Structures are given as C-alpha cells and as structure tokens.
UniProtKB/TrEMBL annotation:
Enzyme nomenclature, EC number: 2.3.2.27
Keyword line: Coiled coil, Transferase, Ubl conjugation pathway
Pathway entry: Protein modification; protein ubiquitination
Name by which UniProt lists this protein: U-box domain-containing protein
Organism the protein comes from: Brassica cretica (Mustard)
Amino acid sequence: MVLPWRSRGGRRAERRNLSTSGDTSVVKIKVPAQLRSSKIELVQSPRAPLTPRDAVEICRRLENATAREENAECLEIVSKIKNLARDNGETNKKWLLQYGVVSELTSCFQRFASTRGEHARLLEEVLSVITSWLPLSRTEGFSKMGSTASLNTLVSFLNAPDAKTRQNALFIIREVIAIDKRFVYALTDIEGACEGLIKIIKDSVSTSSTKASIMAIYRIISCDNKTTLKLVNLGLVALIAEMIVNNAEKSVCERCLVVLNVVCDNEQSREDVLGNALIVPLIVKKILRVSDLATQCSVSILWKLWRKNREDVLLEALQVGAFEKLLVVLQVGCEEKTKERASELLRNLNRCRNEMENTNCVDSSMHLKNVKKSF
C-alpha cells in the first residue's frame, strides 16, 4: 500500500514550504533537475478578493491621511488601491466604488493640488487610478476636480512632457467640464488650457486622446464664443480639415464635423472656415459617406457657409457634386431640419446651375445636364 505522503518508490515526497510575504502567499517548489537546475522557485498564489469591510477601511485610511496631509501615506494607500483594482479587478472595484473611493481620491487630489510641485508623483498616481476606471458616474467626486487648484494642476499635467500624464489629465478635464458650464469658464481662464488641447491633437498622442480632446473642445465652444475664436486662431479649422482627410475612423470624422458645425455658428469663425480651400470639398464628400450624424452636420455646415457667402460657396459646391448628393439625401430620408436645409440648398444650387448653363460656363465634366430640373 502506498501512503498518501509517500511516493511510489517508497521515498517521502517533497513537502511544499509555505511562507507569507505581506498580503501575498508565496509557495516554494523544488523544480526537478531534469527540467531546471535545482533552485527554489517562488510562485505567487492569488490574493483573496476585497471585502466591504476592507473597502471601508481603505477609504477611511485615505481620508485620514489626506486630512493630515501625509504625502507618503497617501501615496502608499493610492498605490494599494491601484494594485487591488488590478487583482480580482471587478470585485475589488465594485466594493471600492460603492464605499466612496472616488470621492476620497478626488479629495486627496484637491488637497495636494495647491502644492503640486512637491506632490507631483502622488497627484499623477491619483489621476492614473481614476482614469483607469472611466467611465464613471459623475458624482460629487468629480466636482472637486473643478476647483481652481485642481484645474490648474490638470492644465499643468495637460502640458507635461509625459504622454500618459497628458492623456490622464485630458480624460479628467473632459469629465469635469461636462458637469457644469462654470467649470468650462474656469478652465478657459487658465493659461495653456486651449493650447494643451490643440497640442494633444497635433501630437497624435493616441486615438482615444484625440477623441477626448475633440469632445472637450466641443463642450468649450458650445458655451463660450470668445474661446471659439481663440481656438480658431490656434489653428483649429486647419487641424479639423487635416483630421478629416487623414483619419479613416468614423467616430473621429463625426466628432470633427460636430465641432466644425458649432464653429460655423460664430460669424468671425466662419471667415476662417471659408478661407480654408479644403473645407467645402471635404464637407460635400462626407455627405452620405460616414453616418447619419455626419450627413446632418455636413448639410448644416454647407448651409451656414452658404448663408454667409452665397454665390462662391454654391459654385464650389456644384463643382464637387453637391447637387446630386443633396438629391439623394432627400430621397433616402433625413430629419426635418436637415431636410429643410437640403431643400433650400438644392433650390439655390439649381438656380445657380441654370445661370451657369445659360452663360455656357458649366464644364461638361460636371455631368449636371442630365439631372432632372425639379426645383
């Protein structure tokens, strides 16, 4: 009979020595000689999931350390939260979020933001934890990131050399300015905020960063005409045209057209849009090519530009095939506002085309003569 603790050869099997190191159990295993040299290999056993009681204790410790302004202790706790979210991620994250860890993290960020030079590492670590959990519900925690000290720190990180730090700051800025317009005005009053958003796009940090920056710009220009002009002067229109040309991703193109549509609401900004030779051909090209949203925005932009500079826009639009595309838009169906604008554009395009034909100014390559004149 072979006893459980003996090998078939009658020799006692090697027992595993268990030791603990901090929160992690370590198993020492003697590796067979034929597989590897006879060294002791350490194998980490998985940690037990966090309990609600543990989550409450971690939040309480972070709250107390923040109140005492203990930088080292706060950094240790934040690093522990980061590791816990990585191990048994969803379970640990669920309990931490439920017991208010986001509020404590944002409180920590707000407390140390006024002296960011001394606590940069801690602040970067807090941003890293929060952004790794996005999307989150915009609770009271995010409003703390809208304080003057917090926004100044975020803008500082937005212009930092490290790409990851810039991206994390951008994601938080996008969330904060979506809460309340007053955070938009507070942000745009900070030197370097608009420049940082434009630079993120120019540097092509990542696709997700580009999308986040475009959406942050959209929220800003939707609230503040003064900042719209500043962004346009920083080269926003040319940047949008470049992204539409070079970026094949549908969601990026949609966001660009949404921003350009809002830019065209501003009379002074429309001058810059009209001054870009790529805009009208690109807008016409994107009609019916990307999505319903892109088509709606393209028709709206074309209509707004026509209202500002009537004949020149119509002539250019005719040359790149706007007449046929707008006809198809009406045939396939669209929302009422888009339908009204497309119809108005078609009537005026048809008039312009007739005038050009009567004066023999239409190039035969435009292929417009066989289109039924129903307007």
